[in-house]
């Protein structure tokens, strides 16, 4: 599998902590974007990392990936949330802008509806939980997008301990 993972974490993380975890989860050494442009000789398998922290809202966004991305994005988020004991947000498979997948600190993943945290119009990387995506919610129960998702209302993944 080839690809990348775009994750928002609800606390500020150090870039080296994120790099180390991405390297472990991807199974390859990971370089920052600016390091990749420095003309280094790269191994056949390597990963990249783009990173930004926003202390004003206690949030970190990062994108990492490699030529071999061994996990689904939601599974990657589950592992990141457990490693950092923090909530993590990743996109889902619908076109609903407010619908995301939330990985709780214990690694549980569920579809939710969230709101952007907007700091006076500046682009920030943070979300506020609005509500879980549930069949009991009238909007979700009637939404073809929510019902047709690979992560339908009330879907839940709980990792083995």
Short descriptors:
single chain, 161 residues, alpha+beta, eight-stranded mixed β-sheet, 5 helices, 24% helix, elongated
Compact summary:
This protein has 161 residues and is of the alpha+beta class.
Topology at a glance:
Elements: E1 3-9, H1 15-26, E2 30-32, H2 33-36, E3 47-54, E4 59-66, H3 73-84, E5 88-91, E6 99-103, E7 109-116, E8 127-132, H4 138-142, H5 144-148
Parallel strand pairs: 2-3
Antiparallel strand pairs: 1-4, 1-5, 3-4, 5-6, 6-7, 7-8
Large-scale geometry: elongated
Radius of gyration from the alpha-carbon trace, in angstroms:
16 Å
Q: What is the tally of beta strands?
A: 8
What is the number of helices?
5
- Terminal CA distance: 26 Å
Q: Stretches where pLDDT falls below 50 for ≥5 residues?
A: none
The secondary-structure element order is: EHEHEEHEEEEHH
Our estimate of the beta-strand percent is 25-35%
Mean pLDDT: 86
Q: Can you give the helix content as a percent range? A: 10-25%
What does this structure look like?
The protein is α+β, with helices and mostly antiparallel strands and about 160 residues long. The chain has one domain. About 25% of the residues lie in helices and about 30% in strands. It contains five helices and eight strands. The chain has helices at about 15-25, 35, 75-85, 140, 145-150, and strands at about 5-10, 30, 45-55, 60-65, 90, 100-105, 110-115, 125-130. Strands 2-3-4-1-5-6-7-8 form an eight-stranded mixed sheet. A hairpin with a 7-residue loop joins strand 5 (about 90) and strand 6. The radius of gyration is 16 Å and the shape is elongated. The two termini are about 25 Å apart. About 30% of the residues are buried.
């Amino acid at each position: 599998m080839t690809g990348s993972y775009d994750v928002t974490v609800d606390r500020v993380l150090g870039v080296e902590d994120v790099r180390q975890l991405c390297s472990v989860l991807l199974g390859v050494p990971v370089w920052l974007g600016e390091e990749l442009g420095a003309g280094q000789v790269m191994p056949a398998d390597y990963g990249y990392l783009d990173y930004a922290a926003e202390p004003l809202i206690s949030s970190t966004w990062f994108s990492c990936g490699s030529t071999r991305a061994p996990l689904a994005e939601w599974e990657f988020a589950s592992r990141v949330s457990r490693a950092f004991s923090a909530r993590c947000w990743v996109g889902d498979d619908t076109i609903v802008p407010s619908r995301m997948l939330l990985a709780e600190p214990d690694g549980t993943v569920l579809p939710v509806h969230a709101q952007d945290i907007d700091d006076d119009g500046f682009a920030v990387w943070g979300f506020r939980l609005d509500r879980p995506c549930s069949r009991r919610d009238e909007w979700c129960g009637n939404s073809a997008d929510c019902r047709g998702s690979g992560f339908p209302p009330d879907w839940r993944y709980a990792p083995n301990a």
